[in-house]
Amino acid sequence: MSSALYFTHKGILFPNKGYDVETLNFVENEFQLLDDDVLNVTYPKSGTNWMQEILGLILHNGDPSWVRSSVAWERSPWIEPIGGMKTALASRPPRLMASHLPFQLFPKSFLQSKAKVIYTLRNPKDVLVSFYHYSKCCKIFKDPGTVEEFLEEFLSGNVVYGSWFDHVKSWLEVKGRPNAFFNSYEDLQQDLRGSVEKICHFLGKELNSQQIDSVVENASFQKMKDNPKSNFTTLPDDFLDHKKGKLLRKGIVGDWKNLLTVAQSERFDRVYQEKMKGVSVTFPWE
Ligand code: A3P
Predict the structure, then answer these.
(1) Ligand 1 centre and the CA of 185: distance in Å?
(2) Residue 248: inside a domain
(3) 30 vs 220: CA distance, rounded Å
(4) Distance from the CA of 142 to the center of ligand 1, in angstroms?
(5) Is residue 245 one of the residues assigned to a domain?
(6) How many domains does the chain have?
(7) Distance 236 CA to ligand 1 centre (A)
(8) Residue 231 is part of a domain; what is its CATH number?
(9) Beta strand segments in 105-227, E
(10) Ligand 1 geometric centre to CA of 229 (Å)
(11) Which residue puts its alpha carbon closest to atom 12 of ligand 1?
């Protein structure tokens, strides 16, 4: 399905505003990843901006001045929107970048490079809830309609960046590669310090205890909410309707219980069982 706001590229919906087929093809086939690139990859609403903050702080040894002085989409551009791709190409290495692309549309050059990917997952029910609320204020996304309507769109992959199930399964194919690290929003919530230590280890960054404390402190929900360079409040009104919602909304695990009815949750579970059949990974929400 398509609407005036979206186009379909290789079976996946993208917003018309800020994206085009030419850029998506360039990113997939010609974008050269460098060995010292770090890429923060997620399905939308899975904690992308949180990981962005964590990585920005780690790469600067816990010093918050960079994340407080440069807006998130410039310090860590998304590679697939037209503007983000240009910013990424103009960035000096070592580059920190982000992407919501499923693996089949991600730069092919990844397979020949040592570029590091950090893939963050989140309970898809919480993703759905976060996506639902964000769709009400994000002007480049379609209005989500009722919860019931959005639930069906989400379960059938009729949303921007396609199906959560397909996205996760596409990326699980690279699990086990030395340059791919998997973690979850729930891991970050449960033990942020422990997660930061694991990410540092993956990146080969040795931070001392004080520097790790500073990463943890400055990546907190409250610190990010108060940081105008990270909280999206400086995004133009034609991208985000600031009166209708915000990026840093609740920042909790399990908010789906406040939105989905028992019947909707059971419907979700049935589709989840079917779509995730054969996936041998155990996720924190299972
Ligand atoms: P909620 O809408 O459930 O509050 P993304 O960055 O991928 O768009 O994801 C946005 C979600 O991550 C939002 O979830 C937001 O509140 C949450 N988030 C962002 N920074 C966070 C932080 N420091 N701690 C906890 N959650 C955070």
Answers:
(1) 9
(2) no
(3) 36
(4) 20
(5) no
(6) 1
(7) 20
(8) 3.40.50.300
(9) 116-121, 180-184
(10) 15
(11) 47
Helix H or strand E encompassing 80: none
- Identify the bridge partners of residue 78 per DSSP, sorted by sequence position: 98
Distance, in Å, from the CA atom of 142 to the CA atom of 6, rounded to the nearest integer, reads 8
Work out whether strand 12-15 and strand 96-99 pair parallel, antiparallel, or are unpaired: unpaired
Question: Which residue, among 94, 74, 96, has the nearest Cα to 86 in the 3D structure?
Answer: 74
Q: What is the pTM of this model?
A: 0.97
C-beta atoms surrounding 261 within 10 Å: 11
Which residues contact ligand 1 via a Cβ below 6 A?
A: 42, 44-50, 126, 130, 133, 219-221, 224, 247-251, 255
| Sign of the dihedral through C-alpha 233, 238, 240, 243 | positive
Q: Identify the active-site residue in 100, 133, 201, 242.
A: 100
- Residue 144: inside a domain, yes or no? no
Is residue 273 domain-resident?
no
For 114, the domain range is 6-123+160-240
Atom number of ligand 1 nearest to Cα 248: 16
Active-site annotation holds for 100: yes
Burial of 230 (0-12, 13-18, 19+ CB in 10 A): buried
| pLDDT tens, per residue, the chain with 286 residues | 446 899 999 999 999 999 999 999 999 999 999 999 999 999 999 999 999 999 999 999 999 999 999 999 999 999 999 999 999 999 999 999 999 999 999 999 999 999 999 999 999 999 999 999 999 999 999 999 999 999 999 999 999 999 999 999 999 999 999 999 999 999 999 999 999 999 999 999 999 999 999 999 999 999 999 999 999 999 999 999 999 999 999 999 999 999 999 999 999 999 999 999 999 999 999 9
Residue 248: DSSP 8-state: S
CA neighbor of 265 nearest in space, from 109, 133, 123, 158: 123
